[in-house]
Amino acid sequence: MRYLLLALSLLSAAVSARPAPDFSLSSLPDAEQLSQLKGKVVYLDFWASWCKPCRKSFPFMNQLQQEYGPKGLVVLAVNLDAEPQLAEQFLSDHPARFAVQFDPKGRIASEYELIGMPSSYLIDAAGQIRYSHQGFFADNAARYEAEVQELLSEIPSTSNLGQ
């Protein structure tokens, strides 16, 4: 078990920057495609109602959205349940204060070559995947948050525009 946890923690790492696969959004009023979120940092998370670690990740994602949303972060969670009522029950027990997208056929997940849940991808303001995480470990939350802060620090502030 200890070796499994060690192996999983190694799966949480920086990746060679690559473009984030684009997909249609139905959960955000001001963007119809993921690519329209360029200029913002996106914490993209894949989850399902049966995923026990997903229950632990929701409070963390709520905190990220609350604290960093005004600074340019968008938390977007993609649900992979085939039956919507399973996701709805999960959300009634674990409220999301961030955008939730539904992908019951797994099309978005296949674009991201998902290998387990939860899986998250941190996308920079240029639309590049910079970090990915397989699983959610509360002990790593400070590191995940530091990665968000790093990418947010790369967004040019409006006070610097035109200088």
From TrEMBL:
Q: Which domain of life is it from?
A: Bacteria
Any GO molecular function: oxidoreductase activity
Query: Quick one: signal sequence residues?
Result: 1-19
Q: Which InterPro entries match?
A: Redoxin (IPR013740), Thioredoxin-like_sf (IPR036249), Thioredoxin_domain (IPR013766), Thioredoxin_ResA/DsbE_sf (IPR050553)
Parts of the chain that traverse the membrane: none
Query: Where does the record place the Thioredoxin domain?
Result: 14-153
Task: Return the SUPFAM superfamilies for the record.
Answer: Thioredoxin-like
Alphabetical keyword list: Signal
Q: What is this protein called?
A: TlpA family protein disulfide reductase
